[in-house]
Amino acid sequence: MHIVIPDDYQDVIRSLDCFAQLDGHRVTVYHDAVSDRQVLAERFADADALVLTRERTLVDEALLAQLPNLKLISQTGKVAAHLDLDACTRHGVAVMEGRGSPIAPAELAWGLILMARRRLLPAMQALYAGQWQVNLGERLYGQTLGIWGYGKIGQRLARYAQAFEMPVLVWGSEGSREAAERDGHRAAASREAFFAEADVLSLNLRLVEATRHIVTAQDLARMKPTALLVNISRAELIAPGALLEALNQGRPGYAALDVFEQEPITDAEHPLLQHPDVLCTPHLGYVERHGYELYFGDAFANVARFFAGEPCVLANPEVRPAGDD
User: Fold this and answer.
1) Which residues are catalytically annotated?
2) Which chain positions lie within coiled-coil regions (predicted)?
């Protein structure tokens, strides 16, 4: 059986303990980022299974049509817009999902909040350039943390905020607002009030059609000129171009970003990377060893289970698993 794993940017997958689950199989791992459909078709031509790293590889109808040998896509984490599930079903390709974890993304978000508020990156860069204490940051104590999306990550951020003595303000669905109030936090009176009151505002929503471009230029214009917007979820939650324009207009005053509309970014002149009031990381939210062991451990176990004909939970159960009579 041939298993292909694309987009291992860091060349780390073979170093994971869970990789031993693939012993005895032919495994091909690619370490670059490729979007050209023809190149992908050539690389995946004789693959029995693909193991996809989150949403890095687009698998659509046109690509699947060139992969007659493909039987399984084992997804790390959940299926999202990168994968045409209906097309997989039409082509007889089973799809299996894994689990996620809120731990590493929440920790990264808090690290970005601390770094951005204390202006640590420019201070550190200056120090390494031979300069001492070039700027003045701010403490988190007393600042209001706004959380849009009170799920597993949002709830962790709220607990971190309590440790730093930051009041928490929540916006989201009615269920999210009610859950936040049960936990002793405050639900915003309105969407407008949420953007206007938050000193640090974190977006923690899943990207689905209902949330795509849900944050508008009007929302951002309501933020304080001293406010920090944090996005570790998906860049497409914000209307195209709205954040850069808002930053240039001074509301919000700062941003900390782990996600971008086009990834990976290879242009050092990208306007968000060049903006003096933006702190950027290269989509590291889930990129952490323990998280990788969880994600890929599930994905590799699903491959073994599928081809052994064992009971499987498919994202598209219309496709019959290998060995299913």
Assistant:
1) 234, 263, 283
2) none
